[in-house]
Amino acid sequence: MKAHGAGMTEMPPFSQLGDRQIAIGTPTAGIRTGSLAERVLFWVLVLSFAVPLQMRLPLGEFLLPIYFFDVPLLALAVVWLLQIVMRDVPPRWQGLDAVLMVFFLWLMVTSLAGFDPHTSIAGALLWLRVLLVFFYFRNRVGRAIAQASFLRIMSILLAVEVVVAVAQIATQSTIGALNQYFGIAWVRDSRQWIAGTTWVTRVQGTFGNAKLFSTWLVMVLPFQLARALTVRRRALRIGHIALLGSGLLVLVLSLSRADIGAAVVAGTVFLVLVAPRERRRTVALVCIGAAIGAAALLWTGVPIGEALAKRVSSSSLLDPKRVAYIQSALAIAARHPMLGVGYDNFTLGMDLASFPFPVMPGVGVHCIPLLLLAEAGLPAALLLVGWIGGVMARIQRGACRLPRGRRTVIVAALASVTAASLSALFDVSFLHQNALITFSAVAGAGLAMRDRAAGAAVSPPAIGERRSPRSDRRWC
């Protein structure tokens, strides 16, 4: 600091403050340094994650995919770049950024060498957006964008999707699925038939696909649970509890076996890592939410129990077609172990594997690491698994550095990443642009919270607060 007048000191500019100084303590943890334009664009960007619209821009023989969230993402990147130039606030690079960048570059290399380079490059460019969103959220959440703002927008999105889903189950239709209003044909008729002419509509939200919707839900619900646990005002707490119960009900109504199981595992992770008092409150909230959901189902008369039973018994992991897809992926990987057949070219590579069933375009093995192994080779599968595993490990270590009772939100981020990762092992919806871009935002925000936790760990505990005893940190 420099002397300024008599007995006064001049604070260094914000860009000269260390990362730890910014992260220490609760008051400075929510500091906002971004402009109003950046905060508005941030809200628009996150809201666009639930809009599954895209167009193809013809560039000669190449069709460049333009997603709905590309416009706010590009505008936000320009605003951020201008702030870096004008305020001299350089972004922070970490090893996980490098891993994701190498993964994207490897996809581009394998795409050029693939069976259909045009299709592969168009699909691989989605990962460039993923890299930018991940890098932005990791650097700006908790700094330019308050953590509370991120949690608030996630709750707003969940409330909108719940309203749409309730309308769909009430009308037994796909009302609200945005794709059908723009002439996009891949809105799925997600009906679960029970017997004869009896059926139940699998809710789809605005996404137009029940499985994609449920994958998105398991990433958002943990943050809603954190808000229900941490909000102080009683009226808001009741509202968040009602929204949490409605979200859990909608997840069940999606009839997605993998995502319901992933939500159970993620909930277990949450219970293990939060403080004992939060565990009791979490169990109470889930019970209240289940009671609300059961009452609503009884009132509507929807035979959800029969639909779930039929859904579970209709197919299994050992279904002959699923097994054939796994065998085909392994056969393709054996012939092209390093480069694969090109990103998004799994269907074209099926000829190499003597697939015994009719080939459906756009349908592949229901396991993301195995799919990448066939499409982009062993390095791509290892890089993706390493990146996701690194994100989970860093968030978990950050949570364990926090005192008891102050780790709820960061554990929610860990539960969100865990649920999405488990879903990716049993379905391909994880690779859809809306699910993937949401995952990158959640992962980046979780790491930003982890950075704040690193500062809070070295700060003195609040009055009346104790460090976590060793027995409470046995899972850390």
Shape: globular
Major sheet, described briefly?
Answer: 2 strands, antiparallel
Rg, rounded, reads 23 Å
Percent helix range: 55-70%
Tally of distinct domains: 1
| Percent in strands | 5-15%
Give me the secondary-structure category.
Answer: mainly alpha
Listing every helix as H and every strand as E from the N terminus to the C terminus, the arrangement reads EEHHHEEHHHHHEEHHHHHHHHHH
Euclidean distance between termini CA atoms: 39 Å
Mean pLDDT: 79
Identify low-pLDDT runs. Answer: 1-32, 457-473
Strand order of the largest sheet: 1-2
Tally of DSSP β-strands: 6
Task: Count up the helices.
Answer: 18
What does this protein look like?
With 476 residues, the chain is mainly α. It has one domain (35-461, 469-473). The chain contains 18 helices and six strands. The strands form three sheets. A two-stranded antiparallel ribbon has the order 1-2. A two-stranded antiparallel sheet has the order 3-4. A hairpin with a 2-residue loop joins β3 (54-59) and β4. The longest helix is centred in the last third of the chain and has 33 residues, at 368-400. It is globular and about 60 Å long. Mean pLDDT is 79; it is low at 1-32 and 457-473.
